[in-house]
Amino acid sequence: MSMFQAVVSEAGEFNLLEDGIASAIICGLRGFEGTKYQSDEPQDKIQIVFQVQDDEGNLHYLTSKPIVNKINEKSNLFKIVSSIFGCDITAFKDGFDCRKLVNPEQPTRCQLVIKTVSSKKDPNKQFNEIDSYLKPKKNQNNEFIPDDKAPAWLNQNVKETLWMPGLSFLPPRETAPAKATMPPAPATTLGDSSAFFNQAPAMPGQPSPYVPPMTKQQQQAYLAQQNGTYVPQAAPAPQPTWPAPQAPQVSVDPGEGLPF
Q: Per-residue pLDDT tens for 222-232?
């Protein structure tokens, strides 16, 4: 189950993790304005941010795919959280506060299945992607590591963020003038109320009703309605639902049995 793009970076430079399973800790949330699926209509989205330390001590940061802050059996938020905690939808009958994932007192540990993929725009560029999420190993005790050189992109183009204490970011790289981007969002503290990372309401999944495709005749009628040239077809003549009457059988007496 591919979980979309999850770029990794250490000290502002790309440094890929090896493919496989890595221990991780949730270290933050990013809130930003995205768009609805297959639409240009704006929609608030969030990303869960993970910190991973490799064998050489380098820190890497990976993000989930952009998801909507709602919880039901079909939501991406539920798929991620249920994979990490090993629970079903009944655990969220009262909704879910995603801010609980960023917890310095009891860090949210998990495992990530990571793979390396190539950029569609430039096949020579590669990055890591979260392929799936797993519960933490038994006795997994990795800790969040404070970092004052986290990559700048984590805190850019966002409306609201929530970070573990001790995480700060490198300044953005200076580049040629480009389109205006949103300034870094002020980090919210764990005690603040949040309008963006609010309680995700428990919403039952609603399967989309099946709508059969229109026939060619229906398509023509629909287009005619749009153009104002639609003429309803005459209703077909009613068909009898009883058996058609049969011609009576008449026997003709040759005359021998007649009384005259």
A: 566 656 665 56
Whole-model pTM: value is 0.68
Judge whether 51 lies within some domain.
yes
Number of folded domains that form the chain: 1
Which CA distances in Å does 21 have to 27, 37, 54, 139, 241?
18, 29, 11, 16, 70
Q: Which pair of structure tokens corresponds to residue 150?
A: 């986290």
Q: Is residue 103 part of a domain?
A: yes
Residue span of the structural domain in which 43 resides: 20-188
